[in-house]
Design goal:
With 71 residues, this protein is mainly alpha-helical. It is built from 2 helices and no strands. The protein starts with 9 loop residues before the first helix and ends with a helix.
């Protein structure tokens, strides 16, 4: 038996390089987004009462603006 060494086409290597660079870019983006979401959720969890108060004030203020007669 003899070993067959396949010639590697430079175009194939370039395609693989682009594929892996896009894959690494996507993974890096997902890592950043998941870290940001984790920080947001932990911030909301730590300051839930403040978040609820601000949401309530915003909701009440929005209702006042929408229900007030236009002059």
């Amino acid at each position: 038996r003899s070993l067959y060494v396949r010639d590697i086409n430079p175009l194939q290597m370039y395609s693989l390089q682009i594929f892996f660079s896009h894959s690494v870019g996507c993974l890096f983006t997902l890592l950043i987004v998941s870290f940001a979401m984790q920080m947001i959720f932990s911030l909301i969890q730590c300051h839930l009462s403040v978040f609820a108060f601000v949401a309530c004030v915003f909701w009440c203020h929005t209702k006042e603006i929408l229900l007030s007669p236009m002059s």
